[in-house]
Design goal:
There is one protein chain. Helix 1 packs across helix 4, helix 3 runs antiparallel to helix 4 and helix 5 crosses helix 10. It contains 14 helices and four strands. By secondary structure, the chain is mainly alpha-helical.
Length: 314
């Protein structure tokens, strides 16, 4: 089996199940890595021993994290189950257990200091991350906002939800919408103006994808070719561009903590918990399926908020 046809078959199975584009890239990467490392030329050559050999290699030689090892295993199991039609029940590989860590959080003052060092699209994205508790990709994929709330379409787990919109950023957001409108009008006059839509959705909406309400609120500086459907569109700013701006802002604000985009999300939940909001409300705003995920923030704020006094202090 040639690699090109093999990888094409995996891609087809992924798209049939409507997995995200990010999952598609990840699964294809790990399967290419696996078949190249084990020098597999045909699907019949794949065995449990070779899978174990590969997983040991990336764990011991490449020093990947537990979550990365689990991701690689999921990609290979997907290939065996849906492409090769193998019975995966006999693959006796335990999923690597990632350590449970208490997330790093910022105080409201620290978060605002960092956000204050940012400008333009990066400022608005950071403000929404902290003000609404979104994931970075959810924030970047927001289309033009028309009311005082944020609608998240198919966030993690393909779940829709409505999030709060901070009042303090409504005015700068209105200015941003006008900026996006000018960019879109310029693209439209140049014969472009197509929005970047999920895989194959362009076939459903066709020319209506040129309408303004489809545009991202944080558009990229350049037009690009859609990675799967091949038309020219304008995507949102790249996550790495925001991460770079965030590192610079953290340095300027002299905050001596490791700050990522997800730190704002953790800080949002912790701030609400400290204000007395119940876990169920926070769970809905965060989009957590299981309330146990939300309960981690009770460990972040510590036991001092419940009135417990150290024996040493008494």
């Amino acid at each position: 089996m040639k690699e090109s046809g093999y990888i094409s078959a995996i891609r087809t199975e992924i798209r049939v199940r409507h997995y995200s584009y990010q999952t598609e890239k990840s699964y294809l990467y790990w399967n290419r890595y696996f078949i190249n490392y084990c020098q597999i030329s045909h699907g019949s050559e794949i065995s449990a021993s070779k899978i174990g050999q590969f997983l040991c290699y990336i764990a011991e030689q490449c020093n990947v994290s537990a979550s990365t090892q689990e991701q690689a295993l999921c990609a290979i199991v997907f290939e065996c189950r849906y492409v090769l039609k193998m019975d995966t029940s006999g693959l006796d590989f335990p999923y690597a257990k990632a350590p449970k860590r208490i997330p790093q959080v910022l105080s409201t003052e620290e978060a605002k200091q960092i956000i204050g060092q940012m400008s333009g699209d990066h400022f608005l994205v950071a403000a929404i991350l902290f003000g609404a508790g979104l994931r970075l990709k959810e924030a970047l994929r927001i289309r033009v906002i028309n009311n005082k709330s944020i609608f998240i379409h198919q966030g993690k787990g393909k779940k829709d939800r409505v999030c709060i919109l901070p009042n303090e950023i409504i005015s700068p957001l209105e200015l941003q919408i006008e900026k996006v409108r000018k960019i879109h009008n310029k693209d439209y006059k140049a014969g472009f103006g197509m929005a970047s839509l999920p895989i194959s959705l362009i076939k459903k909406y066709g020319a209506s994808a040129r309408k303004f309400h489809w545009q991202f609120f944080s558009p990229a500086t350049r037009r690009c070719i859609h990675p799967s459907d091949g038309y020219i569109c304008r995507h949102h700013i790249h996550p790495t561009a925001f991460s770079k701006a965030l590192r610079l802002a953290t340095k300027k604000a002299a905050i001596d903590k490791r700050v990522t985009a997800h730190t704002f999300r953790h800080s949002f939940a912790t701030a609400l918990l400290r204000k007395g909001y119940d876990l169920r409300t926070i769970q809905e705003l965060m989009g957590h399926t299981d309330i146990k995920t939300t309960q981690i923030y009770t460990h972040v704020i510590g036991t001092h908020t419940s009135g417990v006094v150290s024996p040493f202090d008494s």
